Amino acid sequence: MDQQIQQLPAKPRASSVDSDEAKAEDKQWRAFEVNKVFNKADKTRRYKNNYISTSKYNCFTFLPKNLFEQFTKMANFYFLCLSVMELFPSISDSGGRPVLLMPLSFVVGVSMIKDLYEDCKRKSQDNKENNCKIQCVPRGKAAMQEMKTSDI
Predict the structure, then answer these.
(1) Better-predicted residue by pLDDT, 88 or 21
(2) Is there a contact between 136 and 152 (Cβ–Cβ < 8 Å)?
(3) How far apart are the C-alpha atoms of 115 and 29, rounded to whole Å?
(4) Environment class of residue 112 by beta-carbon count within 10 Å: exposed (0-12), middle (13-18) or buried (19+)?
(5) Given Cys at both, which of 8, 38, 50, 96 links 152, Cβ 3.0 to 4.6 Å?
(6) pLDDT digits (tens, 9 = 90+) for 8-32
(7) How many Å apart are CA 144 and CA 150, to the nearest integer?
(8) Comparing C-alpha atoms, which of 140, 148, 137, 147 is closest to residue 43?
(9) d(Cα 97, Cα 95) in Å, to the nearest integer?
(10) What is the model's pTM?
(11) Burial per residue of 43-74, b for 16 or more beta-carbon CB atoms within 10 angstroms, e otherwise
(12) What is the mean pLDDT of residues 69-91?
């Protein structure tokens, strides 16, 4: 099956007038090798598993990713900029105290708790789906077996 394919010389592009002739001519030269990429004789090839993961965060990425998401919202970014500007007494109404930081931190904190709750729900649904038992016929076998969906 291992046939060598010769490199064909580049042909000029066809104009719209002779496009049908060019398409017919191109079909004569198209070739590909069967079993070149997915060689069935190679038993050591590892396939990706069927594990489902729709959660956005893990323990290490929750805080940075969520803060980035929170401050990409225009309102949160606006109030963050105002809070930073309040630190300078020369341009601040509050004498250098960041008064807007409390409501901003409350809104961002509530949104972070909501995102954490939703992500935990997603993870539990993923685990439920990955551990679900199904009946399937594995490759090379004739009988059905019970397997988890993540092991297919």
Answers:
(1) 88
(2) yes
(3) 54
(4) middle
(5) 50
(6) 555 555 555 555 555 555 555 555 5
(7) 17
(8) 140
(9) 6
(10) 0.60
(11) eeeeeeeeeeeebebeeeeeeeebeeebbeee
(12) 93
Amino acid at 65: K
Q: pLDDT at position 82, please?
A: 92
Closest CA to 12 of 3, 28, 25, 27: 25
Q: How confident is the model at residue 1 (pLDDT cuts 50, 70, 90)?
A: very low
In this predicted structure, the answer to whether residue 67 has a pLDDT above a threshold of 60 is yes
Backbone dihedral region for residue 100 (phi beyond 0: left; psi -120 to 50: alpha; all else: beta)? alpha
CA-based R_g, the chain, Å: 30
In the chain, the amino acid numbered 54 is T
**Do the beta carbons of residue 112 and residue 81 sit within 8 Å?**
no
Q: Are 133 and 146 in contact (CB under 8 A)?
A: yes
Q: Distance between CA atoms of 104 and 91, rounded to whole angstroms?
A: 20
Percent of the chain whose pLDDT exceeds 70 = 66
Which residues, 6+ apart, have CB-to-CB distance to 33 below 8 Å? 1, 2, 3, 5
